[in-house]
Amino acid sequence: MKRPSATLTKQRIARQLSRRTGISNQVASNVMDALVDMVTDHLGAGGRVEIANFLTLRVERTGQLHLNSEDFKQIGFAP
C-alpha cells in the first residue's frame, strides 16, 4: 500500500468530499463541522461511535488530561 504524502486534515477531507460528491466546498465544510461536533458530543457523553468495517471510537476515563495542541483547549475528561 502506498504511503500518503500528507496528513488528511478536516479541511482536506472537506475538499475531497466536495470533489467526489459535487457539493460546494462550503457545504462540505459545514458537513465536516457538524460531524465533528456530533462525534465530540456523543463521546463526551460517554457514548461510542462506530462506522462498520472502518473505525470505532470510545473514551476511556483514565483521569488523564488531554489537550488539543492547536489551541490548548482541554478535551480530556475527569474520572
The helix-and-strand class reads alpha+beta
Roughly what percent helix? 40-55%
Could you tell me the strand content as a percent range? 5-15%
Average pLDDT works out at 81
Gross morphology = extended
Overview of this protein structure:
With 79 residues, the protein is α+β, with helices and mostly antiparallel strands. It is 41% helix and 10% strand. The protein has 2 helices and 2 strands. Strands 1-2 form a two-stranded antiparallel sheet. A hairpin with a 3-residue loop joins β1 (48-51) and β2. The longest helix is centred in the middle third of the chain and has 20 residues, at 25-44.
Keywords:
single chain, 79 residues, alpha+beta, 2 helices, 41% helix, extended
Concise summary:
41% of the residues lie in helices and 10% in strands. The protein has 2 helices and 2 strands. The protein has helices spanning 10-21, 25-44; strands spanning 48-51, 55-58.
Q: Which secondary structure elements does this structure contain, and how are they paired or packed?
A:
Layout (H helix, E strand, L loop, with lengths): L9 H12 L3 H20 L3 E4 L3 E4 L21
Antiparallel strand pairs: 1-2
